[in-house]
Write a structure and sequence with these properties.
This protein is of the alpha+beta class. Among the domains are: 62-194, no CATH class; 204-292, 2-Layer Sandwich (Beta-Lactamase); 406-555, Heat Shock Protein 90, CATH 3.30.565.10. 41% of the residues lie in helices and 28% in strands. The chain is built from eleven helices and 23 strands. The chain has helices at 3-56, 208-212, 218-221, 250-259, 294-369, 373-398, 401-404, 413-430, 449-465, 497-500, 524-534, and strands at residues 61-65, 77-79, 86-97, 105-117, 120-131, 136-140, 147-148, 165-167, 172-175, 183-194, 204-206, 225-230, 236-240, 264-269, 273-282, 285-292, 409-412, 434-439, 444-447, 472-480, 483-491, 538-544, 547-555. Strands 2, 4, 5, 7, 8 and 9 form a six-stranded antiparallel β-sheet that branches. Strands 11-13-12-16-15-14 form a six-stranded mixed β-sheet, with helices on both faces. Strands 18-20-21-23-22 form a five-stranded mixed β-sheet. It is rod-shaped. The two termini are 19 Å apart. 23% of the residues are buried.
Length: 560
């Protein structure tokens, strides 16, 4: 395959690969942006659910199932709340009698606690009474008439502290006509109604079950979360441990409150676990919700890594497909080019014979009949046709790069350039041009010396043909970073920038109006380009201030 077609295929592969890479990269970025948006939306939904539930909860009351409470040695239930902030207490239970026909019966007990009065701490109790058909009893802590300091309280001091109170088992039963042992009272729960003194009350410990009645939203179970409730002065009212395995100690809660601020942010809790928190306030109640970020970040990173690996795999597959398709795409061009070269080669060889016959016959006629204007015209045109066929065959042979490298060897390019310039000195003198040379001595390279000589000849011939009258032609040869740099420049005011990009095209001639006045067929620079590519170099042309500059870069080991 010709080098130009290889370049075309390479450009296609690079362009298609860049497009595929750009599309895959865009899709990866889009995927990860969408993932981040989804996670952020998920976090916002989680915060919103927590805040809505937290603000709707009644923090002025709290219910305990007595079956979940610890008991003392007397069987009394220990309620871990101070009575200082209690307005009232509602007991729920069921009183029953073995005699279902009984018209009236009752049973009762008491709530026992320590009470500070007149600088002294006393042991006190408030009695409760359940009558027949009563399921709830409320004890008003603001009514001092229910307050007692004697009797049963003196006997039941076990487990009472300043931060709790006791709910006793049944102290007494009463009825008109049935034995007292036939009456039973089972207490189920106690509901504490607080006053507005948040500073005096104990911190409420909540669970998600308390807020959602065992219908906990799925999003709250998919990530670690909890929340804190405070008043406007940041006095902690309640702590919901959410789905954490353990409750927070009061010291941990205080440390958290010292760090967080109103608004939003992140902080490390529980041995360095990163949490995002969000603040909201409504009706004097402030909610701080906390959501673990480590799991979200870890999932995002896993998605990123997986998407990158998948992107690389897809790109490799697409690259293989692109390479395969590129071969199919350039095959018609390669096949057409090969057929074109074969046609030129066959036509050139077929034309050589009649041109040779015409030239020989013209010579015989000239010797037989003497000089004749018509014979001179025939001879000139046959010579011109012979030169065209020769250049076409040369161009065709040079396209077979591998075959043309059999003549490569080390040679002195300095000598080649000097000798070529010497050949053209007489012609330059006759055409009133001045040759200026700047050639570094003893420069060598690996290649075909005859083709490099042909290259130099083409550049000098082109410069002499298309130079302004009595102008200077400059030739330089130097070495830079392992490359041989050959330049040939001449002034040509009749050429413009539009022509520059077409000079290496076959049969292109810049000065169309003078095409018949100049020898040549527009193939010389095409041959020069092929020779340069044969040596793994490159040739370029530029126009600067009316001066045409051809510059050839040849690697010293270009033939290897």
């Amino acid at each position: 395959m010709d080098k130009a077609i290889k370049k075309l295929r390479k450009k296609y592969i690079i362009s298609a690969s860049l497009i595929a890479f750009s599309v895959i990269l865009f899709m990866l970025i889009l995927l990860n942006v969408i993932t981040l948006i989804v996670f952020r939306s998920f976090d916002r939904n989680t915060h919103e659910i927590i805040h809505q539930a937290a603000h709707s909860y009644n923090y002025n009351s709290e219910t305990f199932l007595l079956s979940d409470m610890e008991t003392n040695t007397d069987g009394d239930y220990i309620i871990p709340r101070s009575v200082d902030s209690i307005d009232s207490v509602t007991l729920s239970g069921e009183i029953t009698s073995k005699d279902t026909t009984q018209g009236w019966y009752s049973a009762g007990g008491g709530l026992m606690f320590r009470l500070a009065m007149n600088g002294m701490e006393k042991f006190a109790y408030r009695e409760y009474t359940f009558n027949k058909n009563t399921s709830k009893v409320t004890i008003d802590f603001n009514d001092d008439s229910t307050l007692r300091f004697e009797k049963y309280a003196l006997l039941r001091e076990s487990g009472v502290t300043d931060d709790n109170f006791l709910v006793s088992i049944v102290w007494w039963t009463s009825s008109d006509n049935i034995p007292k042992d036939d009456i039973s009272l089972k207490l189920d729960s106690i509901t504490i109604h607080y006053n507005m003194n948040f500073m005096a009350r104990s911190v409420m410990q909540l669970h998600y079950q308390d807020l959602f009645n065992d219908k906990i939203p799925t999003v709250l179970n998919e990530t670690s979360s909890f929340f804190l409730i405070t008043d406007r002065d940041k006095h902690i009212i309640a702590v919901c441990s959410g789905n954490l395995p353990t409750h927070f100690e009061e010291s941990e809660i205080s440390d958290i409150m010292d760090i967080i601020s109103e608004g939003s942010g992140t902080m490390k809790i529980n041995s360095g676990i990163n949490y995002e928190y969000l603040f909201s306030e409504k009706n004097g109640i402030a909610v701080y919700s906390f959501i673990q970020k480590n799991s979200t970040n870890r999932t995002s990173m896993q998605i990123l890594v997986i998407s990158i690996i998948l992107g690389i795999v897809i790109f490799i597959i697409l690259f293989v497909i692109i390479v395969y398709i590129s071969k199919k795409i350039v095959f018609p061009l390669s096949d057409s080019f090969e057929k074109q070269k074969q046609f030129i080669s066959n036509a050139g060889h077929e034309l050589k014979t009649p041109i040779t016959v015409i030239s020989a016959t013209t010579d015989l006629l000239e010797r037989k009949h003497g000089n004749d204007r018509l014979l001179d015209t025939i001879k000139a045109q046959s010579d011109k046709m012979g030169n065209l066929v020769g250049e076409l065959l040369e161009l065709s042979r040079l396209s077979e790069i591998n075959e043309n490298k059999t003549q490569f060897s080390n040679f002195s390019i300095s000598d080649i350039v000097n000798n070529t310039v010497l050949y053209f000195e007489s012609r330059a003198f006759e055409e009133k041009h001045m040759l200026e040379i700047d050639i570094d001595e003893e420069l060598t390279m690996y290649g075909d010396s005859r083709k490099i000589e042909r290259l130099m000849g083409i550049l000098l011939d082109n410069a002499l043909k298309y130079s302004d009258a009595q102008s200077k032609i400059r030739i330089t040869l130097s070495e830079q970073k392992g490359h041989i740099i050959l330049t040939c420049s001449n002034r040509c005011t009749e050429i413009n920038q539009e022509h520059i990009s077409h000079l290496f095209e076959r049969f292109y001639r810049a000065e169309e109006s003078h095409s018949n006045e100049k020898d040549g067929f527009g193939l010389g620079l095409s041959i020069a380009k092929v020779i340069t590519e044969l040596h793994n170099g490159n040739i370029s042309v530029s126009l600067r201030d009316g001066i045409v500059i051809f510059e050839v870069h040849l690697p010293k080991r270009g033939g290897l």
